Amino acid sequence: MKHEEKKFPEGFLWGGATAANQLEGAYQEGGKGLNTPDVLPGGKVRLQVLKDPGFDFELDPEKYTYPNHEAIDFYHRYKEDIALFAEMGFKTFRMSISWSRIFPKGDELVPNEEGLAFYDRVFDELLKYKIEPVVTISHYELPVHLAKEYGGWRSRELVTFFERYATALFNRYKNKVKYWMTFNEINSSLHMPILGLGFAIQKEEDQYQPTFQAYHHQFVASARAVQLCHEIIPGAQIGCMIVYLPTYSVDSNPENVLYALKEEQLFNYFCGDVQVRGEYPAFINRYFREHGIKLEIEEGDLELLKENTVDYIAFSYYMSRTEKKDKTPEEVGQGNILGGIKNVFLNASDWGWEIDPTGLQISLNQLYDRYQKPLFVVENGLGAYDKVEEDGSINDDYRIDYLREHIKAMGEAIEDGVELMGYTPWGCIDLVSASTGEMSKRYGFIYVDKQDDGSGTLERKKKKSFFWFKDVIATNGENL
């Protein structure tokens, strides 16, 4: 039997991914309120702040810089940027909506018309070029007022506010947006609750109880959003979104294999199981007992979760994770912000993130085997230092190499039988890094002249990868 070439399916959604708080800027325009990323400082100090139990969500411009305030000014330049996406041939554009543009404080009864109108203009521009918007409802942000006055997702009241916000979006954009996601990388809050849950763990409190109670509130809010989306926009698809790291044991010692399994269950599958299967997984019961976690679950919550599961699983894939039961601080990989030890078989990026294309094929197989639902790789990419040559060119062959190998891995997974909807590499245009607040950590096909110190003209330049990815899309993944 002749071996057939690996084919990406017809209608495969090639495109790119961004987040409102990392590219829009205009943080006080159009009636927008402060959101949580607006008060996160720039530079490597951001990682310290994200883990600071005393963080108070206040601005301190004398001490810090705030690159998200201007970001790359997509708010005023979206037409130019979308034209560049269209030139690359994007079939889809994954973006998010800023909650505080629609409800500036988060607990208002009536949405902000200026904010709604801005996204109307963005969607109209995308649809003009036949680019399908894929919209994340909450991408690492919520109005600062909800963080400070309600304690973020600690409070059950946020379910009501999120429902009101999602309802406003579905009603307004029901004729423009067919693909939705609820919470970005929802499982990452196990490590950094400030980003996803809108609160810091206080020094005197146990980290487990508030985090998992907040998770329950988000699960309920997500299920309610799924229910509303299906009611208001028949035929729309709404998914969950997780960060996925296949977890390897450092060796074949059963103790290390078991440890890696338990880490993988908690991080990779807990949130997915609730949103995709509609129920808390069996393995979490022991974890709750051992950590003294007792959830407040209201009447009807479990039924709501069961009856309103997501249509597809979106996930980010940047690296794998290698684990060992008893590891020393010296063994921990430099860039592995989510734990793990250095994998001697892998190279790493400029920021220490290990590069493992085969891990993407493994991830796709694991997720599809577990859930049997369509998958969507909505983030993947290489953060790197880019150099502008004297002639203005940016020769990012390292990015092309990275993406080529990951696209090959997706092709292998499709041949394995995985149902894959699309691929939107992260930061298709350079933007502010979520974890470090830097501009120098660049992912894009499009270079933006903005530096870590805030200087720059904001001019857009096409990198070498721009033309390469254009050809990949034009040939539906055949020319790599």
What does this protein look like?
- This protein starts with 12 loop residues before the first strand and ends in a 6-residue tail after the last helix.
- The protein has an eight-stranded parallel beta barrel, surrounded by four helices.
- Helix 3 packs parallel to helix 5 and helix 7 packs parallel to helix 9.
- 48% of the residues are buried.
- The chain has a single domain, classed as Glycosidases (TIM Barrel, Alpha-Beta Barrel), CATH 3.20.20.
- It is of the alpha/beta class and 480 residues long.
By DSSP (H or I, 4+ residues per run), the number of helices equals 15
Strand order in the sheet with the most strands: 1-2-3-4-5-7-9-10
Mean pLDDT: 95
Largest β sheet strand count, sense and barrel closure: 8 strands, parallel, barrel
Whole-number tally of structural domains? 1
Strand content: 5-15%
How many beta-strand runs? 12
Describe the secondary-structure layout.
Layout lengths: L12 E5 L2 H4 L21 H6 L23 H15 L3 E5 L2 H4 L10 H16 L3 E7 L5 H7 L6 H17 L5 E5 L9 H5 L10 H25 L4 E7 L3 E3 L4 H24 L5 H8 L10 H7 L4 E5 L4 E3 L33 H15 L3 E5 L17 H19 L4 E4 L22 E3 L11 E3 L1 H11 L6
Parallel strand pairs: 1-2, 1-10, 2-3, 3-4, 4-5, 5-7, 6-8, 7-9, 9-10
Antiparallel strand pairs: 11-12
Q: Characteristics of this structure?
A:
480 residues, TIM Barrel, eight-stranded parallel β-barrel, glycosidase, beta-glucosidase activity, GH
